[in-house]
Amino acid sequence: xxxxxxxxxxxxxxxxxxxxxxxxxxxxxxxxxxxxxxxxxxxxxxxxxxxxxxxxxxxxxxxxxxxxxxxxxxxxxxxxxxxxxxxxxxxxxxxxxxxxxxxxxxxxxxxxxxxxxxxxxxxxxxxxxxxxxxxxxxxxxxxxxxxxxxxxxxxxxxxxxxxxxxxxxxxxxxxxxxxxxxxxxxxxxxxxxxxxxxxxxxxxxxxxxxxxxxxxxxxxxxxxxxxxxxxxxxxxxxxxxxxxxxxxxxxxxxxxxxxxxxxxxxxxxxxxxxxxxxxxxxxxxxxxxxxxxxxxxxxxxxxxxxxxxx
Length: 310
Hints:
Keywords: NADP, Oxidoreductase
Protein name: NAD-binding protein
Shape: globular
InterPro entries: NAD(P)-bd_dom_sf (IPR036291), NmrA-like (IPR008030), NmrA/Isoflavone_reductase-like (IPR051609)
Helix content: 40-55%
Domain NmrA-like: 3-300
Strand order of the largest sheet: 3-2-1-4-5-6-10-13
Largest sheet: 8 strands, parallel
Radius of gyration: 20 Å
GO molecular function: oxidoreductase activity
Number of helices: 14
């Protein structure tokens, strides 16, 4: 009988980490370990993980050193899904994983395909990619496009999944006819459980996606489901580029957001056709790898969202 791989997810209580943990548990193929920050060890979510048979290991989020090596001993696959990690701390985590004998690392990506120089958030991830290759540890880089969960405007601003989601929903950057790829957050873990158990994905970039749609189509779905008329605010390509230039001078979170909008809706980076191109990383298409997985549709998500059932 083949021995189960031990997979550690750091951190396991965020939205992506939780989806990944669920997918791993439901696959029944892995020994599942949750990497938890010391400050979170007493949270109800952690107790729930324990009740599901998940082993808990405590990390200091800001310090990865020889103690981290010991935490990672016996781990076959390390999946990183932690916000707020600097490039330097991610490099430290890679070093610790290498010393501990981790066979594959899934780095802290979970975003959308683009090219270097388009937005700083991606560029920092690319630096980590380069370091992983330099160190010589096995890897899989995974992007997921835009979550269904942030594609639509919630019924109330207090229900935002992402900062600015409520207000930005009615804005159309560019012409509104550029397609982008979307994935339901709940599907990510299902795909990841297959990806990390697949030798074809070792030392490759994989793009998970469920559906492609334009911003106009997203607004149309919301109008159809809610039975209302949405009046969008059009932000022209020229105005988007002006906002982009100003945000890059100011820096911070506004820069990250407008760079995403520009990449998604003006450049059109976030589609499977681009992800597969060598200059974008030559992604493997998760839907082609695992055609039996049926991703949730945007229309189904919107119906559940506006019915208040999710």
